[in-house]
Specification:
3 helices, elongated, mainly alpha, 41% helix, 80 residues
Length: 80
């Protein structure tokens, strides 16, 4: 999901025992191996998204009730 205050929401969800992940903490063009390669300004979108995107749990065994619980906790965290 794309959220403001990702780290705060992630912490709040962790307190509720909802495991989340940040899969791309640093976009490719910001890695040290590519520091000498100038990129177009369009890559600023990738930079911004790397600080906003949070992966929620998803797998076949999640019940509808668990999905609703996760959604409600995300909403609660985003509003607080």
């Amino acid at each position: 999901i794309d959220v403001d205050q990702r780290d705060i929401i992630q912490r709040n969800l962790d307190i509720k025992k909802i495991e989340t992940r940040v899969h791309y903490t640093q976009p490719l063009h910001e890695l040290p191996a590519y520091e000498n390669c100038a990129g177009p300004d369009i890559l600023s979108v990738a930079s911004a998204m790397s600080r906003r995107v949070l992966s929620l749990p998803f797998y076949p065994e999640l019940t509808d009730l668990e999905v609703e619980y996760i959604i409600d906790r995300v909403i609660d965290s985003a509003l607080s």
